[in-house]
Amino acid sequence: MPPRKKARVGKRTPKSGDEGETASSPKERAGAKRKAATSVDTGGKRPDSPGVSQYCHWLMKSEPESRFENGVDVKFGIEDLKALPNQTGCWDGVRNYQARNFMRQMKEGQLAFFYHSNCKEPGMAGIMKIVKEAYVDHTQFDKKDVHYDASSKPDNPKWSMVDVQYQRMLKRFLPLSELKKYHLQHRAKGGPLKDMALFTRARLSVQPLTAEEFDFVLSLENKEPL
DNA sequence: GCCAACGTTGGC
DNA sequence: GCCAACGTTGGC
């Protein structure tokens, strides 16, 4: 298994299906109640079977600059992912239910933006691919780990992670400030970034993008900075 | 380093 | 099941 990275709250997760799935937080349940039947928002997605839709593009945040949490540096930027064997790493350390649930929805082969957060210039740095679907995040049981969770038991793990592989850098870094201009513009007059989670759910570290959002953001790498 | 927004915890 | 207190995220 690849080394780990440091995702903050919403960072890294375990596997599918049965395990853990039943352990939903009060928040998740509340959310489910509010909305409809699933934890999946109705944002944009790709129908898989009748009545079910799911996302197929993602944004995952990590911090590219050194920051110490309990004496451990949580820095993990896209260059760090690229430097790993096979340019692949596990996205461990996610300790937020919504972020975890999104990771559990990820399918092998799907693409995600690598977003640099909590740094000088926050924004989209590059693209990675999901190469292994959700499985148990071992760091939840490691007392030495920054993201150790004493409340999670091995026979019913709470947290999951996926493996991601570096694909490429964006042709140019897309700063949050620029994305925000488009977001505001689109919110006023309509456009693909109108409801982008990056702005409407700012603190979520693993978030879905609709195909329209993903394509629009990607198209910006060929444009002049706004 | 500040602090607004928001997620989590725990008493009742 | 409500909600106040508390903790964390992450832009600025």
Automatic annotation (TrEMBL):
Organism of provenance: Echeneis naucrates (Live sharksucker)
Gene name linked to the record: thyn1
Annotated EVE domain residues: 57-219
Alphabetic keyword roster: Nucleus, Phosphoprotein
Protein name: Thymocyte nuclear protein 1
Subcellular location: Nucleus
Compositionally biased intervals (Basic residues): 1-14
Entry function: Specifically binds 5-hydroxymethylcytosine (5hmC), suggesting that it acts as a specific reader of 5hmC.
Example of a GO cellular component annotation carried by this entry: nucleus
InterPro entries in the cross-refs: 5hmC_binding (IPR052181), EVE_domain (IPR002740), PUA-like_sf (IPR015947), THYN1-like_EVE (IPR047197)
